[in-house]
Design a protein that fits this description.
Number of helices: 4
CATH superfamily: Gcn5-related N-acetyltransferase (GNAT)
Strand content: 15-25%
Oligomer: single chain
Strand order of the largest sheet: 1-2-3-4-5
CATH class: Alpha Beta
């Protein structure tokens, strides 16, 4: 399977074949991730902007003619009060169900981590939904450690 950068003309495929199913799975896991009615349109615009941003890298896993998965990383620098240096934040990683349990998520993470090294980053960070045990296990197996917990309170 080939893992390569997403091309500009593939943004629609990414959104329809990978991002939307990923977002829908996350919404099923936790209603906090519920999608807006026009989520697809906004996702298309957002991803189209990001594919043109030099500080964002989206890599797709291609099996034959179809997308099997993707990972997206964003280069970030912390406020100057911190000594931790730049990092790559993983915006999302997703593998279609029929390609799971074959090491593809690890391959995608390897690719975004390699990109982080190319950018001279000292670390990679990500957020994992509290109810997404599969993603938590993947992260732990890859020796990611918890540095903070995001707490959310719904207001009346």
């Amino acid at each position: 399977m080939e893992i390569r950068p997403l091309r500009h003309d593939e943004v629609g495929r990414l959104v329809d074949d990978l991002w939307l199913p990923f977002a829908e799975e996350m919404a099923e896991i936790d209603s906090y991730n519920e999608l807006a009615e026009d989520a697809r349109d906004h996702a298309f615009s957002y991803k189209r902007e990001r594919v043109q941003d030099d500080d964002v890298a989206t890599f797709v896993a291609v099996a034959g003619e179809e997308f099997a998965g993707y990972v997206e990383g964003e280069y970030r620098t912390p406020p100057p009060v911190f000594a931790r240096g730049p990092e790559v934040y993983v915006e999302g990683v997703y593998v279609r169900p029929e390609y799971r349990r074959k090491g593809l998520a690890d391959d995608l993470m390897d690719r975004v981590e390699d990109w982080a090294v190319e950018r001279r980053c000292r670390r990679v960070s990500l957020d994992v939904n509290a109810a997404n045990e599969t993603a938590q296990k993947l992260s732990e197996d890859r020796e990611y450690s918890v540095k903070r917990h995001r707490m959310v309170r719904e207001l009346p």
